[in-house]
Amino acid sequence: MRNTERTFMLMGIVVTILLLMHLLPTLTIGDTPLRTVSILSDVFNGNVEQEHQDVIPPPSTSRSLLAEKKGKERNEKDTKAEDFKEIVPPGVTMIEDYGGDNAGGMDHFYAMLYSAKLQNRPVRIAYFGDSFIEGDIYTCDLREMLQEKFGGNGPGWIDAGSVFNKGFRRTILQDYSGIEEFQIVKKPFDLKVQGMNQRYFIPSEGSRINTRATHHMAHASKWQNARLFFRTQQGLTIRVTNGSQEAQTSHAAGSGKVQMIETKGEADKIGYSFANVHSKTYLYGMALESDHGVILDSYSMRGSAGFTLISIPGSTLHDFAELRPIDLFVLHFGLNVISSKTTEASLRHYCKRIAKVVSHLQQAFPYASFLIVSVSDRSQRTAEGITTMKGVEEMVACQREMAAEKGIAFFDLFTAMGGRGSMKKLVDSNSANKDYTHINLKGGKIIAEHLFKSMVAGYDNYVRHNTKKN
Fold this sequence. Notes:
This protein is of the alpha+beta class. The chain has two domains: about 55-150 and about 295-470, SGNH hydrolase (Rossmann fold, 3-Layer(aba) Sandwich), CATH 3.40.50; about 155-290, Sandwich (Jelly Rolls). It has helices at about 1-20, 50-55, 65-80, 105-115, 140-150, 315-325, 345-365, 390-405, 415, 420-430, 440-470; strands spanning about 30, 30-35, 95, 125-130, 155-160, 170-185, 200-215, 225-230, 235-240, 250, 260-265, 270-275, 280-290, 295-300, 330, 370-375, 380, 385-390, 410. The longest helix has 29 residues, at about 440-470. It is globular and about 90 Å long. The relative contact order is 0.16.
């Protein structure tokens, strides 16, 4: 009897402690919130799913108080100081610029576009994304539209010897041998030697890379400058054949920094071969571009959520910034974060990590504009049919709020493409794959037009505003 009483007393003490712990405020370790203690969670399990669905209101009901406030402040400032009213073309979802005149907003990018003809280099866009842009899908259409309007040639950044360049990327064709590829989403991977593309390629003696343009996109079918980026501790001999020009040989000295060799002359193909290859030699890629207009680099990483960009060494980013400045960074991630278990805590934690990525990139590119492109619509099969996946709208709201907090720009791709159910419509029109997540070549052009029109509308307003001031 005494043992039974002790057992009940112990149970009572444990239950009392757990009930008291349930009353504690939410605790966090770093940026990660701990789960709330609830001994009755199993009893009320049927309400958990509904609770998670409502933790972050979708943008249709709440555009984030911070984002709303900052947007109003910017519009009021323009209206009072300059009596300027932004023009929104019919059917265009505008870029929401929370940077204003400060660094990080779109002004730097628009200013560079406005003075592009007076510069001795092109206006460069670094577009980072996941499998949504893999193979230059969508980004090749956006690049072509921008180059058609603002000038420029070339496909931009091309990885050195990647399997995705062997017929998968439609703007170029690549053949290579003796090159081993490493990327951050696969082990082994040395974080310290990665390039800005979150990859590195190790050549062997006599290895080669041959890259040529396709004619799928008119402006990407040729270039005037080819730049190869690499790092070598003990030196490297590089032989370059650029189009029909006579081959040239360069000898790179050993250095701990990222190096670049430049080959000028209009061409639609380029070849590199490597000799005197020592250990600790890493290839990154080549930039095939014009000396004017707009260049858009497509940096895709299948399976990435984007926050691994913070692992790129700051010294490496500074090397790239010195060799090849970037004017606009576009971060387009989120598909790999959303799932049936998406919660407010997980979304906020994710967006905080992306905010740190922005800060990390800004340290090397303090002048650059930054644009967060929201997650696209993504559908799943449910008892009610094919519907927008839980967490998509919540992610959009979280991404918008993060952009407002960082004072950068935001583009609501989810709304621009039609909101809920829009991915299903693309699938039904043969413009997206039947995974209801990824677009195809036809859908790429449709999606690209949304951001292109928004960029042009923002640029036109920038020109009107600054012309009026002057």
